[in-house]
């Protein structure tokens, strides 16, 4: 696990001193991702200079896995961030074909695979990764990202240079000219509270989409983005498979995935929230390990956000060495600014705050933690997946004109003054999500502002009418209707842009490696062949996963409801963060900024601060944007 950087300077050949200084500076900016080691490669190739660097957090092959790694003829060189979970299997296959190795690292396995099979070998990798390979013979650089997008990869081509990096800070600090705000990225952020690939907050800076690779041709100084070839797998629903067969297969796949992701030469544990996913991962690991495992959970002094009773029950059941941390506003306050600034672009998922703290506490005991991330996307576990049924029935029974009356009449009675996300909040969100044109799912995933609200709070010159267009075109889903549609949209948008970003940045800021057993390519592909009612059975979410493991837990445990892993930021905006928030709505500051409608955004914030209306999600989204704008972006 580490972070990688690289650049190709094709309009100006750099001296060895210049290129080494530049790549070292990029590495220094991400030292938190890899405090154990670093490495660089640089070469002048005619009129072109190429450099690659990495920071390493040593997890596997602690002594001989130093990067960069070269092929024996030194025609190939690689820097790599991530873990390949099937590398031992792949290595055995290569050895049986007469190929020799100098290290015990998964990095060398990637390089040997490429050396023998080219870019088609990328599909063989089971893991999380971002890597770059310089092929001197082909005079090309290949830069790849994993199936789900667990590991980040940004890139830009500008001012005679192509740059790529694990974190935005390596690019923004290296850019020769100030970068402008990208309007699509801005609109996506304000709607979603995060920015998914291929966009970023900056014009010209892109995120490499999951399961893609860049081919950069050094002879032409141009690049193309390709999809990694997908291994053959049935795409159609297998209606003949029985529930019993599916349960057995899923239990086997999940267990095997947990085992494969537990390979480590350093101490390892699990995040245990007490929900279905983390409980199953912890159970599987405890059954595989001969000694008690380490489990970690975090709770809040505000009881409506605290669910440590569930994690305590599981920890006792599996006899783990359980570590529980109860936090309040003061615990977050010290690190909040560092947490938010480390994302390098606006990011408003409040669960990043407790994720950072549990990572920080966990790192005091272990270097690797398994998580339950991805279980909801793979097995259909979100409440929003009910919306297909809700929207279809509601819009067929209730005329659009009547809905408008019900919605407008109800809203004043659904206002709340506290950040408790109770029944009134959920009913209000439901009414706002019903859509008679089939676009309801784009609104239900918009946790910040709906499209109509953006028209109210954002100046017209900054508005983009169709920010989701590229995803509709790429996925071929204009109006998601089925559970399969919802899961596919979430895999490419919310999983890549939110869930995985949150865990990667907060854990790596603490030099902790997180692994997600549910994010397994084989598991995802298998579940996609199953009937949808195996996942969402009536109103029973994640039905198949719970059925597969229900005999391992006390009766009814896996059916207990669980809230999201959030933080009471709505309250904090009124207390410890209020002074900073108020500074962001100063009239002259907003007018100079030229992004928001001064009158409407000021009213929104003041209503929240006064306790008149709880506007937590919108105000927190605004606050995180302003914090990035005035602390990180600093417009020239």
From TrEMBL:
Pfam families to which the protein is assigned, alphabetical: Asn_synthase, GATase_7
Keyword Ligase assigned: yes
Catalytic activity as recorded in UniProt: L-aspartate + L-glutamine + ATP + H2O = L-asparagine + L-glutamate + AMP + diphosphate + H(+)
Source organism superkingdom: Bacteria
Domain Glutamine amidotransferase type-2: 2-219
This enzyme's EC code(s): 6.3.5.4
PANTHER family xrefs: ASPARAGINE SYNTHETASE, ASPARAGINE SYNTHETASE (GLUTAMINE-HYDROLYZING)
Protein name: asparagine synthase (glutamine-hydrolyzing)
Organism: Flagellimonas halotolerans
Lineage: Bacteria, Pseudomonadati, Bacteroidota, Flavobacteriia, Flavobacteriales
